[in-house]
Amino acid sequence: MNAAISHSLEGRPEGSHGAEQMGHLVTGGLDLSHGVALYLEDITVSFDGFRALNQLNLTIDAGELRCIIGPNGAGKTTMMDVITGKTRPDAGKAFFGQTIDLTRLTEPEIAHAGIGRKFQKPTIFERHTVFENLELAMKTDKRVWTSLFAWLSGEARDRIADTLRLIRLDKEADRPAGLLSHGQKQWLEIGMLLMQEPRLLLLDEPVAGMTDDETMRTAELFVSLAGKHSLVVVEHDMAFVEKLGGKVTVLHEGSVLAEGDLATVQNDQRVIEVYLGR
Ligand SMILES: Nc1ncnc2c1ncn2[C@@H]1O[C@H](COP(=O)(O)OP(=O)(O)OP(=O)(O)O)[C@@H](O)[C@H]1O
Ligand SMILES: [Mg+2]
């Protein structure tokens, strides 16, 4: 690794998704020929005998925007841990597209295959500018880099400019990222994910701590990303889920309790019982 990059990566919080995770080990491309981006079948994860996921089944279509809701401890984050290779399931199948068996890949290999994950706490480089953060996140072959801020191709600059507009930070490009608002930091991290060109984005409680206005702008951003990307969004904020407008999956005790549009699942008696407590 180049000295300037390794220096910059020092002090980066855990769970970072940066270019350092790019492996070169994934064989074969993503096959979306059947229109399915993610397929989980009978996934079970036990922690000391406790089933955090219990024969979980989930299918996400290519380009779909899916919300996952459910009470605390339902297994939502554990599900993302399985998809990203952080946690190995005890049983079940997990496929990215038709051919990529996620249970056989390491975390860096899964990231490289095209699954990006956003954790709740932004993991950005506070002392670098917004522009530099996006530059650092770009999928680049580091072997050909001579220095961190070496000459950028026009195409790369265009991609950064497009992403800056998309995440509404074009006016903040030259500011140190540490000076952004909480919501803007979250957007920057989403932008950093996008620079890696993921096909599937996993977002765990992305609007926690945002203002109402930032929350609604984030919903607009996610809606605009659907189609080109598949998105799986875990969120407790129902106004946000409603604004996203996609299909909703309710998890409870590690399994799917209900699935459908938000109004349908909200009127489902089993869902009401789970949320209100019996
Ligand atoms: N590493 C672990 N070891 C032991 N138990 C764990 C571990 N990770 C998660 N669990 C347990 O598994 C269950 C599911 O946790 P998970 O974090 O997936 O829930 P969640 O749906 O994301 O909840 P929340 O809405 O609070 O974020 C919980 O009971 C949790 O305590
Ligand atoms: Mg969670």
UniProtKB/TrEMBL annotation:
Residues 1-22 are annotated as: Disordered. Residues 38-278 form the ABC transporter domain. GO terms for cellular component: plasma membrane. Pfam families: ABC_tran, BCA_ABC_TP_C. Keywords: ATP-binding, Nucleotide-binding, Transport. It comes from the Bacteria. This is ABC transporter ATP-binding protein.
